[in-house]
Design a protein that fits this description.
Helix 5 runs parallel beside helix 6. By secondary structure, the protein is of the alpha/beta class. The strands form two sheets. Strands 2-1-5-6-7 form a five-stranded mixed beta sheet, sandwiched between helices. Helix 6 links the parallel strand 6 and strand 7. 33% of the residues lie in helices and 18% in strands.
Amino acid sequence: MAETSNPSHKRTEGVLSWKEYFMSVAFLSAKRSKDPLTRVGACIVNEDLRIVGIGYNGMANGIKDDEMDWSKEGKRLYVCHAEMNAIVNKIQADVRGCTMYVSMFPCNECAKLLIQSGIKKVVFYSDKKHDKDYTAAARKLLKKAGVETEPYKNVTKVVIDFSEIDETA
C-alpha cells in the first residue's frame, strides 16, 4: 500500500518555532545598527507571544551616527544599547513579565534596566563577553533579582529572501 502524504505536515514544514522567530527578529533588528564591530538586536515578547518592543545598538535620537565616535571608548560613552532601545520604544504601558530575546548577553547597565522594567526572562544568543567584569556583574544582578537567563541553543539557519515571496498569492 502506498503512503499518502499528510497535507497538514506540508503546511508546518519550514515554520519557525516561537523562539526561532523572536531570536530572528532580534538579529534582523541588529542589522539596523551602524556599529562597525558589534551589532546587537533585542526583541521583547509578552506572555501572549506578541512582540511589544524591538531595538538595536545605536546613537540616541537626533544624533547622527556618522558624526560620533564608534571606537570602544566612544561606544561606551555614546551608544544606546539594544536592550535600552527595546524598553524605551515599547508599544505597551510596561514590560513586566515579558521575555527579552537578545543577540548578546546584556551588560550590567542593561541588566539594571531589565530588572527595573520587570523583564522576567532573557534569552540570549552570544555570550562572547562572558569574561568581562560588566558581564559578571550583569549575571549577578539578574540572578539576585530572579530574572531567568537562557542561552539560545537552536542552530536553525534563517534566511530572508524577498524573491521567495509570492506576490500573486
